[in-house]
Amino acid sequence: MRERDEGAPAGRRVTAMDVARAAGVSVSAVSRAFTPGASVSARTRARVMAAAAKLDYMPNALARGLMTQRSNLIGIILTNFKNPLYLSVLDHFTHAIQQRGLRALVFNISRGGDLTEAARQILQYSVDGLIVSAGAISPLLAGQCARRQIPVVAFARNPRSKDIDVVCADNVAGGRMAARLLIERGYRRIGYLGGSAQASTSQDRGKGLVGELEDAGLSLHCSVHASEYSYEAGRVAARALLSMDEPPDALFCANDVLAFGALDVARHRFGLSVPGQLGIVGFDDIGLAEADSFSLTTVRQPIEEMVRETIALMMRRMEDPRLEPETRLLSCSLVERGTVRGPRL
Amino acid sequence: MRERDEGAPAGRRVTAMDVARAAGVSVSAVSRAFTPGASVSARTRARVMAAAAKLDYMPNALARGLMTQRSNLIGIILTNFKNPLYLSVLDHFTHAIQQRGLRALVFNISRGGDLTEAARQILQYSVDGLIVSAGAISPLLAGQCARRQIPVVAFARNPRSKDIDVVCADNVAGGRMAARLLIERGYRRIGYLGGSAQASTSQDRGKGLVGELEDAGLSLHCSVHASEYSYEAGRVAARALLSMDEPPDALFCANDVLAFGALDVARHRFGLSVPGQLGIVGFDDIGLAEADSFSLTTVRQPIEEMVRETIALMMRRMEDPRLEPETRLLSCSLVERGTVRGPRL
DNA sequence: CTGAAAGCGCTAACAA
DNA sequence: TTGTTAGCGCTTTCAG
């Protein structure tokens, strides 16, 4: 009765059947009309589309997903909502995902909350893939996904496990780059301002630093782990380091916001000149690193490329789930700005 | 513990029926066991749960949503992936959403891309609600949602239309606060560094500034619209303003990153002392505004409260869709730091 | 190319 | 409290 009333106030939702009736065709015809590359005559398709437009119909993705076993949903689990880098990460991911006709289901576990539990929630939506940028992926979780044939890729974390795909910056090499630069430029008492002690990223960056230092016959002068990857935590940590009896003359920070904190404390609280009395190198190269106020010399993570690789790996595995898991370490690059002194000429 | 090989080894997905068989009960019993507050005996529930655990079963949210007409999905459409504030916005939204057992479907339209089209994509997933933080919501879109009984709320934008819920900071009042402070502190040639000319936020903040200026018998000294809300755009715009024959002695910037750009250009390129020769006020109060390097005096947007209100409004409307649309303007507050000079004593 | 009919996995009456 | 039985809205053989 209130069937094809256009301004129908809160009427029944319009389904493929309504459209079929209005267009004088079968439901399958409607389905086909909305399925790219299905076998429908141009004429039928046109009719269907017209009726659909008139009724403001659109296919129900839930029903479709239920039937096809493809939800077109990609789950993204994130922990880090304090580091501006992740806004850019999210920007790239959502963009890339949408480009391929998929949608992003974002799950936040920054306030504490179990990764495995988060994944459970997400898996219920039969996502076609899962991107995890958070702590270690338990074998349990890996198993659940494998059994369901859902590709998982660890992003910007390096869970040493070999049975999962991972895309990550080569943090060890990045740490080495920072060390080399600092050594070359004459700094000798080099310290490490790390992030949380459990984070593989922080560990690896520190490992690279120490490795290169030792190769040069030097040793790590001092180190702290900040409580989290944030500006405030950077200040606190830097204060500790700079208050030592024999303070460092250079600091490699596990990421840019930490470095900002260190830089500000050094300049504004300890009255140190940077890069003169203290050299600072960050990691990530977030947008504000190039602000005049910071002009931070840093190790750039190739975010865009990492995102691209992540999606590529995911798609590949969607096509062939039995491929060997891969670990792709992408190279970082040094971005020299003003917090490390120039070469002696 | 043969958890791993229990189910089919990558075979058919396990359904409620499999669990029912394994537990020796009916499918409805399984359904009930997974529905909080359903009428099941503790004994059956236990049995079901045991079988479910053994088979690694979890209910299919798509099927469930199809049946119940509730997907437990909330759509979030965003444009601004350049402003760190939005990482925090996303943090709060996802958190609040998850708290209530819902999931966030995030859609990015920053790269250009039609809002109405984006909404179409999202609506296909029968989201239970839609949060839009992007340009104007067309009546067409509003209608589509209304017809489907999907609550929409415009976040941090003020589309003047009266037929939609909106939660927004009181930008006009915020602009006035900035103006009042600047006037009080003796600045007289006050300029506006706005964001994109179409953004309601930028318009309103400017409107407030001008209003207060005029109330004080002053007038706007100059103004520009930055191309976007970014640090770089802030630099470009500030450069233009500061190169004028008679440059402003104070700048109210439509947001913090814009202000950072202006601040850096003023200090490092024009050699101006801030707040001595130039006063600067920002908007948002993002984390880095309190960094020593910027120590930006700014108008704080009550993000957390805004998010809370948004969700509350949405839930309210989910219960009773025929309520009158509301516009909630939340008050901003002034955060004084170091880019505006102190009161004369 | 088109339609009829059988489900996808689950919930919600309705009986028992 | 339980099980039986219709669907939710869609895709997809399978005939025609």
UniProtKB/TrEMBL annotation, chains A, B:
Keywords: DNA-binding, Repressor, Transcription, Transcription regulation. The keyword 4Fe-4S does not apply. It comes from the Bacteria. Residues 14-68 form the HTH lacI-type domain. SMART domains: HTH_LACI. The keyword Repressor applies. This is LacI family DNA-binding transcriptional regulator. It comes from Chelativorans intermedius.
